[in-house]
Amino acid sequence: MKVSDILLNDGYKIPAVGLGTYQIRGGEGYHQILAAISDGYRSIDSATNYDNEGIVGKAIRDSGIPRSQFFISSKLPGKYHRYDDALSAIKESLARMGLEYFDLFLIHWPLPKRGLYVEAWKALITAQKLGLIKSIGVSNFEPEHLDKIITETGVTPAVNQIEIHPYWINDNRIQENLKRGILTEAWSPLGRGSDALKEPIIQKLAEKYDKNVGQIILRWHLDRGVIPLPKSTNLEHQRANLNIFDFSLTNDEIQAINALNRENGRIDGQDPNEYEEFE
Ligand SMILES: NC(=O)C1=CN([C@@H]2O[C@H](COP(=O)(O)OP(=O)(O)OC[C@H]3O[C@@H](n4cnc5c(N)ncnc54)[C@H](OP(=O)(O)O)[C@@H]3O)[C@@H](O)[C@H]2O)C=CC1
Ligand SMILES: O=C(O)C(=O)[C@@H](O)[C@H](O)C(=O)CO
Fold first, then answer.
1. How many Å apart are CA 172 and CA 174, to the nearest integer?
2. Which of 48, 82, 162, 264 is 20–30 Å from 91 (CA)?
């Protein structure tokens, strides 16, 4: 299945769907990632905190597909926000992956109470200049965090990866990213297997388009200009999650899914202003 590309604000292109890899680890995880690659995934979202950079890199190398055809992302953990630590951490991530560069590297969480994310951002800018990273971005950044790094460095992130699913549609943050020329990626795009998959409106649309419920939600992301990063260890789901480029939702259908939004729909404990990573 051919996945479309989207242009980033720095001139690089990113595939419109990527594979989430949270909790995909070890030998089993290696085979799951290899299977996803053979099904057509070229964009893979990893993180130092996922303890899987080694198997992601091994799957890429063993796939036989040229490195240049992949779009590989990882993320900086909070314990390495200091400038020197961040630069070393990026080099360590590359070493674990066995790669010479990342296509995208993100600050995983802003951790505003620690107040070091501007230092971390400066390290990503340096790493980009050194050729270790092509595109640099952030994750879980609120508009005020974005403004702070942009004002203090003059460099706008290419991507902000944030929580988005039918119970947390996050329209305001998507618009705030857009205003600054930042592309939005959706983490937990399927609500991490929540009841969203059972919602009648989504089931009805699945029947209408002859798709499954996961595909309807992923198409909703694309139709809102958002890149979803679905995680699946099930081969059938993995394949289906890429097969979303032969239909699109109407504006009314997008609004009907938007109406599932809940004031407290965020996944527990993931408020970017409060979130603390475990050391
Ligand atoms: N930047 C950040 O702070 C964060 C980033 N992330 C990133 O986002 C990725 C995705 O988020 P994640 O939390 O994993 O959750 P997802 O929203 O991707 O949901 C994953 C769950 O949905 C199921 N699923 C996948 N496809 C389908 C389908 N077609 N039909 C029915 N069920 C399906 C999976 O089960 P099965 O395996 O059986 O298919 C799994 O239980 C992460 O893996 C990670 O890469 C996530 C959280 C925070
Ligand atoms: O998966 C990630 O990228 C995370 O940042 C984690 O916070 C994850 O969302 C989680 O729920 C950890 O408890």
1. 5
2. 162
